[in-house]
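Long-time lurker, first post. I've been practising inverse folding by hand and with some scripts of my own, and I keep getting stuck on stretches where the structure tokens seem ambiguous. Below is the full token string for one chain I'm working on. Before anyone asks, I'm not after the true native sequence, just a reasonable design that respects the backbone. If someone could post their per-position residues I'd love to compare against what I wrote down in my notebook.
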């Protein structure tokens, strides 16, 4: 099975460890993983900002780079959703590119969705000594139906206890360019999310989209919390590095 890893912009630039953790998970599940070196952005920021031409150009680029593989897997519900849901609609006036977009969309998955719904894995390589609370990202939850999958995988991690936060499905306030355009609203939403996360009294907040996690971690630190870890689900499932001070994770 030839699986292409779509790294995502934020993972590449801000936390490459998520990409390496995803690679480890896929390889441990028996996948032959490829990482196309010319990949860049899925085009979601341009799409959400109304720049159709840029979104089209990036969609064509991504389709050409990834259509030769059995599956495309991304450690991001929002990027996977862009490819699965938005790409075909971009090519309503171009039947050939629409066909190619639909073919790739049908083979594209968010990481936990792929591990559970396609591979049905029953073991993950990571261990975690402590508790986590899970944040459901908007695109993954509402567009792709990702809810049970990450929890099913976290249940396989030795030493891990899941503590659900109040309103786990509520938005964190990031929303990509939304956080830039509507900073005050975003900050208020993030504060509510962080208050709920802290109410779970978990050692770490875990999620499937790095944008959400960066927003949550930034707000937690501004609220004075310096101890709660904020981790991508791939890092936990693959074996997150030890926390400062030697605490396992």
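-- Answer (accepted) --
I ran through it position by position. Result:
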């Amino acid at each position: 099975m030839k699986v292409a890893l779509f790294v995502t912009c934020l993972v590449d630039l801000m936390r490459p460890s998520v990409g390496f953790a995803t690679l480890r998970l896929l390889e441990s599940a028996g996948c032959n993983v490829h990482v196309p070196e010319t990949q860049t952005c899925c085009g979601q920021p341009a799409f959400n900002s109304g720049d159709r031409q840029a979104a089209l150009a990036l969609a064509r680029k991504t389709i050409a780079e990834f259509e030769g593989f059995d599956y495309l897997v991304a450690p991001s519900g929002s990027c996977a959703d862009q490819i699965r849901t938005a790409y075909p609609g971009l090519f309503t006036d171009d039947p050939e590119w629409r066909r190619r977009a639909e073919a790739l969309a049908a083979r594209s998955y968010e990481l936990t969705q792929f591990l559970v719904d396609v591979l049905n894995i029953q073991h993950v390589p990571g261990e975690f000594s402590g508790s986590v609370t899970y944040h459901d990202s908007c695109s993954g939850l509402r567009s792709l139906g990702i809810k049970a999958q990450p929890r099913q995988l976290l249940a396989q991690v030795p030493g891990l206890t899941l503590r659900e936060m109040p309103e786990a499905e509520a938005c964190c306030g990031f929303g990509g360019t939304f956080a830039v355009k509507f900073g005050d609203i975003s900050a208020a939403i993030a504060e509510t999310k962080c208050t709920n996360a802290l109410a779970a009294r978990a050692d770490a907040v875990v999620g499937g989209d790095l944008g959400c996690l960066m927003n949550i971690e930034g707000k937690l630190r501004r609220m004075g919390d310096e101890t709660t870890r904020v981790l991508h689900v791939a890092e936990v499932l693959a074996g997150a590095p030890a926390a400062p001070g030697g605490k396992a994770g």
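A couple of notes from the structure itself: The radius of gyration is 18 Å. The chain has two domains: 2-118, 130-238. Happy to go over any region you disagree with.
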